[in-house]
Amino acid sequence: MATITMDTPSAWDVLDGVNLPGGYRVEITAGKIIMTPQGEHPWRVVFAAAPQIKQRLAGQGTVLSRVMIDFPSDQYGYAPDLAIVAPGAERNSRGRFEWHSLEAVIEVVSKSSRDDDFAKKVHLYAECGIPVYVVIDPEDVVCTIHRGPTRTGSYEDATEIPFGQDLVLPLQGRDITIATDSFPKAGDLD
Q1: Mean pLDDT of the chain
Q2: Threshold 0.85, pTM exceeds
Q3: Running DSSP on this structure, what letter comes out for residue 93?
Q4: Residue 140 burial (C-beta neighbours within 10 Å; 0-12, 13-18, 19+)
Q5: Residue of 159, 153, 178, 157 lying closest to 167 (CA atoms)
Q6: Measured distance CA(143)–CA(162) in Å, rounded
Q7: Of 36, 80, 91, 160, which is most buried, counting CB atoms within 10 Å of its CB?
């Protein structure tokens, strides 16, 4: 397996050797390290969606959850709730996948991540050319599929799919269908 060397420093480099506490999600936004407690809703969505994605990929790609991805910036380091890595993608010299290896990114909205998921991440993922970006929102009970990334940091198309309907991810040469009827709604835990 060949390794790819990324010329741009990774935002994750600042955390090399740091012992981070468990139970927190760590991301880097605009050069700031953001640590937020992990919520139950995002995990329940991830646990419902990841096995479906893995099964439907049938060995044509990989699904990752909250794994560091190298983006072409030393100011942004994201570990998406779910990321679908293209078949045949290789890790770089740091042992991580890079942005151009991703076919889709799925983020699950929590109260603390709402602004990032609907603004900053849309902008960065589109700028990086991530073909499909999905925001799953348990509070609004809807999934938003963004397609057609532009280099100016927006997507040409955004389609809302209510919970209970199938979420179809248009990947390279194939579609992955995720049943959303088991996704928790914000009021489910109250």
Answers
A1: 84
A2: no
A3: T
A4: middle
A5: 178
A6: 6
A7: 80
